[in-house]
Amino acid sequence: MSIVYINILLAFVTSLLGLLIYRSHLMSSLLCLEGMMLSLFIMMTVVILNNHFTLASMAPIILLVFAACEAALGLSLLVMVSNTYGTDYVQNLNLLQC
Amino acid sequence: MNLFNSLTMTAMFILLLPIIMTSTQMYKSSLYPSYVKTTTSYAFAIVMIPALMFIYSGQEAIISNWHWMTVQTLKLSMSFKLDYFSIMFMPVALFVTRSIMEFSIWYMHADPYINRFFKYLLMFLITMIILVTANNLFQLFVGWEGVGIMSFLLIGWWYGRTDANTAALQAVLYNRIGDVGFILAMAWFLTNSNTWEFQQIFATKHESLNTPLMGLLLAATGKSAQFGLHPWLPSAMEGPTPVSALLHSSTMVVAGVFLLIRFHPLMEQSKTAQTLTLCLGAITTLFTAICALTQNDIKKIIAFSTSSQLGLMIVTIGINQPYLAFLHICTHAFFKAMLFMCSGSIIHSLNDEQDIRKMGGLFKSMPFTTTALIVGSLALTGMPFLTGFYSKDLIIETASTSHTNAWALLMTLIATSLTAAYSTRIMFFTLLEQPRFNSLSPINENNPLLINSIKHLLIGSIFAGYLISHNIPPTTTPQTTMPHYLKLIALMATITGFVLALELSLVTKNLKLNPASNMFKFSNLLGYFPTIIHRSLPLANLTMSQKSASTLLDLIWLENVLPKSISYFQMKSSTIVSNQKGLIKLYFLSFMITLTISLLLLNYHE
Q: Has residue A73 been placed in a domain?
């Protein structure tokens, strides 16, 4: 693989690690989720453009749309948690009850 | 080419003059009431000339003045029909109105807005004349609505009183229900005869006339206070006594009967309509006569008497005698207005006391009013050769000798004897026995205005029946031969009513007062009809609208079906299904460790 692909893949893996390992704030995992989406988007675009795979040119746009939706969903969950507890500390989520 | 048309138009224009003068100084002066009264008497004198021309030569006319508009094929114009009915009614109405205006100068002299009162009375008279001289249904409707509005304004004359406002509103609402029938008839005539002119309606042949005739019957029920739409008439006694005398005894309430009389060529063709009219009139006359027996307000008794006589007129239309009904309208106007004016005189003399239980012994203190009251009551009950006899006796005779519904005839006869009964009751309680009123009220009937007005109507009550019935052109032939018991049945019923009522009144002087029996309560509370209908119908309407609009549409369909049910369902199911503890960091870390170990293993195996 060329160095470009490895670079972007490394960015993806770093974001994934950041998503899975975090200390207290829920916000940091959401930010890393955004980073994952960003790197996926770049990876997809570069591959499609380099291989002249024009039929799949739609795919990055659609990925962007779904990324926006999931970001909104994640933020609404964050707001719900923050409304109840005042902060977004993960320690607070020990009793999942509506 | 004589002056028939011009004189009628002149008379109508003269009546408009005081209304035009309201923007001038005359309206603000204290001479305006007598100005209006003199205007009315001049109009009466002028309109007598075409009336006498008609009596002499039978000349009728249709005056078509002004073409308003043509809507596709419907031509609307202002046209006046001067035939037997309108020409004979106009002098009677103007005579009675002149007397009532003279009376109300005396009665309302302490009222600061007396000029406005006279303006309203005159506007009422003008709209009533528009109604009776209308040649097309549109103009008749203009007059119809006009008298309704003036009735509202005049009943609520003392608008500071809640009861007066309620009564005025009641009058308007009940009339409105009748107007629905009127508009139904108008729409039917528009679509089936393509016109609203009477001549064309009567000339075309239709298959089934039941729809418009039912509509017209509903209109007459509303306007003439027949059973079902009757409570507004006794409530309308909240207005001043001249208003009761003019509107609710002689002129406005006969508008419904007049409408049915105008359509008599159509009524002759439909047996269903005649039977319905007959039964409706019979129920009305008996029911209101029963209600009149136990009322304690003198004006209410006379109001129920009016209602009963209106039922009698409707019965007459039901046996296909429109000309007799019209004769009864004309004669009834005289003595009923006079009865109201006598009651006004008594009320004013006793310092606004209207309860007959607190009157008494006025026979010697108010001789003139006593005379007028007794003559009026006798004319009402149909004493031979007074005014009422010429119309009422003829009606009973014709009803007894025609192929009619026997039950309706029996009701009418019972109502005739009850008429005598409640008339005796009025006379007994107000005129005879010991006085029961406060002793300091100045009993004075010595005013020339009062005496002149009652005197004119007194002469009318005695002679008008004879004069009118011997001078009108011949119409339907009355039945000339009948068995002697049928000839005398009206008189016998009346005498029975008189004697019974007098005996009972004299006997009850010495008895102890019993608590009211059920029949008494039924009669006193107007058959419970207002109590039930005025509460239950609005309650049903409001409940239905609250249930359907607010509860059903808003609360259920818009709120609960999708949004709230989805959220409720999701919350319930998530609380049931989830049994997690929320150790997020642990779960994420285990995911990462699994991923790392699997990558390492799969990369470095052989």
A: yes
Q: In terms of domains, do B425 and B534 share one?
A: no
Q: Are B581 and A20 in contact (CB < 8 Å)?
A: no
Residue B204 lies in a domain: yes
Judgement on whether residues B503 and B541 belong to the same structural domain of the protein: no
Give A 5-34 residues with CB within 8 A of chain B: 16-17, 19-23, 29
Whole-prediction pTM: 0.78
In a domain, B586, yes or no: no
Q: Which of B574, B582, B588 sits opposite A20 (nearest CB)?
A: B588
The pLDDT, as a whole number, for residue B443 is 86
Task: Look at residue A51 and tell me if it is in a domain.
Answer: yes
Q: In the listed set B512, B532, B562, which residue is the last one of a domain according to the structure? A: B512
Residue of A nearest to B579 (CA): A96
Chain A residues with CB under 8 Å of B585 CB are: 22-23, 90
Within this chain, do residues B534 and B455 fall inside the same structural domain, yes or no? no
In order of A71, B315, B386, B522, the CA distances from A77 in angstroms are 10, 81, 97, 72
| Number of A–B residue contacts, CB under 8 Å | 31
ipTM over 0.85: no
d(CA B213, CA B268): 11
Q: Are B416 and B541 contained in the same domain?
A: no
Residues B249 and B346 in one domain: yes
* Chain A residue with Cα closest to B570: A98
Is the Cβ of A1 closer than 8 Å to some Cβ of chain B?
A: no
- Whether residues B449 and B411 fall in one domain: yes
Q: Do A20 and B575 touch (CB under 8 A)?
A: no
Residues in chain B with pLDDT values less than 50? none
B80 in any annotated domain: yes
Choose the mutation target among B572, B588, B598, B600 for the interface with A, i.e. most A CBs under 10 Å. Answer: B588
Shared-domain flag, residues B133 and B211: yes
Alpha carbons B61 and B54: distance in angstroms, whole number:
10
Cβ burial B572-589 (10 Å sphere, 16+ → b, else e): eeeeeeeeeeeebbeebe
Q: Answer whether B88's CB lies under 8 Å from B82's CB.
A: no
| Packed helices B448-471 and B367-381: angle between N→C axes, nearest 10 degrees | 20
* Tally of domains within chain B: 2
Instruction: Give the dihedral of Cα atoms B408, B412, B415, B419; nearest 10 deg.
Output: 160
- Distance, in Å, from the CA atom of B429 to the CA atom of B425, rounded to the nearest integer, reads 6
3-state DSSP call for residue B183? helix
Cβ-contact B32, B111 below 8 angstroms: no
3-class DSSP assignment, residue B405: coil
| Domain carrying residue A66 | 3-88
Q: Are residues B117 and B222 in the same domain?
A: yes
CATH number for the domain harbouring residue A78: 1.10.287.3510
B374-428, pLDDT tens digit by residue? Answer: 999 999 998 888 888 899 999 999 998 888 888 999 999 999 999 999 999 999 9
Q: Is residue A80 part of a domain?
A: yes
Residue B549's domain comprises 513-554
- Residues forming beta bridges with residue B66, ordered by sequence position: B78
Q: Are B300 and B232 in contact (CB under 8 A)?
A: no
Tens digit of each residue's pLDDT (9 = 90 or more) over B88-131: 999 999 999 999 999 999 999 889 999 999 999 999 999 999 99
